[in-house]
Amino acid sequence: MTENIKPLFISPTKDAHVIVVMSGKGGVGKSTVSSMLALSLASKGKRVGVLDADFHGPNIPRMLGVEGKRVLADKTGRLLPVEAGDIKVISLALMTDDPDAPVIWRGPLKVQVIKQLLNDVEWGEMDYLVIDLPPGTGDEPLSIAQQIPSADGVVMVTTPQEVALLDVRRALKFTKTLGLNVLGVVENMSGLICPHCGGEIEVFKKGGGERMAGELGVPFLGSVPLDVEVMRAGDEGRLTEAMKKETPGTVAFARVADVIIQMVEGEGGKR
Q1: What do you get for the CA distance between the two ends of the chain, in Å?
Q2: pTM of the model as a whole
Q3: What is the H or E stretch that residue 26 is in?
Q4: Does an H or E element contain 130, and which?
Q5: Which helix or strand (DSSP H or E) is residue 166 part of?
Q6: What's the pLDDT tens digit per position in 201-236?
């Protein structure tokens, strides 16, 4: 890393916990995990912000029900996050007029925009910032790592399938190479809960994420089943509403949030 590192600015709370959500490949439900983790933390009384750094697939606004709203600026030019219930959200999708317009940017421009989003947002008092990264190990993850070297850690999302696990192994080595702390692995889509009988179907097998975490010596944060209610709510922008219900998916995400809170705050509470 040769460029100067400018630390993340969160005003006025400078000790907010920063959780980076990554995946080795697309299609594993990373944005759903980011959204539900943020909602779970907020349901436990935490002040939470979400930075959607997936420029080419910014799905966080849709899932949290703020699609169509716009990010504004205060008198000093600092960006003001959009509020999704108790959560503050920043996303490129909230700054463009055409939601269907593709982002065609080369690496240097993406890096510059990430710097601006990290440093020019007026988050206010905050306990947790959840950063949703694009899949893979390209410019965005590298830039985030350079900008926030003191992040509490990375939550790596996978599904039980072998092809997903192979890519996650590479992504985990990427984070370790950059010196980022790995909080652990979440196995998403770990079994399907039948909406009719309540039984579990192993659509993509089960347990691969936990086995991989053990082999690589990183914590396993928990398994999250395919939950029809959560899936529909994400598509329809109702995740905030869905979080209020006790379903297999919401319960699983709440458990993951509990584990993360314990890991980063410990017995003494907030650092």
Answers
A1: 28
A2: 0.87
A3: none
A4: strand 128-132
A5: helix 162-177
A6: 776 677 778 888 888 899 999 999 988 889 899 999
